[in-house]
Amino acid sequence: MTVYVIAQLKFTNEDRYRKYQAKFFDVFKDSGGRLLAADEKPVVLDGEWTGSKVVVMSFADEPQARAFLDSPGYQEISKDRIAGADTVGLLVHGLPAPV
Question: Is residue 42 a contact partner of residue 49, using CB atoms and an 8 Å limit?
Answer without folding.
Answer: yes
